[in-house]
Design a protein that fits this description.
Elements: H1 2-5, E1 6-7, E2 10-11, H2 18-23, E3 26-27, E4 30-31, H3 34-42
Antiparallel strand pairs: 1-2, 3-4
Length: 45
């Protein structure tokens, strides 16, 4: 997993990579995980 995130010694999160996209919950202050976002919206949060 770290091999997908660390490029040239720096953290690089490629949101186009399906594995990383599905593993993240939030990024840059936004909920990016669709399942978590849907559950929170359905719960009225």
């Amino acid at each position: 997993m770290l091999g997908l995130i660390i490029k040239d010694g720096a953290i690089h999160i490629d949101l186009e990579d399906q594995i990383l996209k599905d593993s993240l919950i939030t990024h840059a202050g936004e909920i990016v995980n669709a399942a978590v976002r849907d559950r929170l919206q359905n719960a009225g949060v």
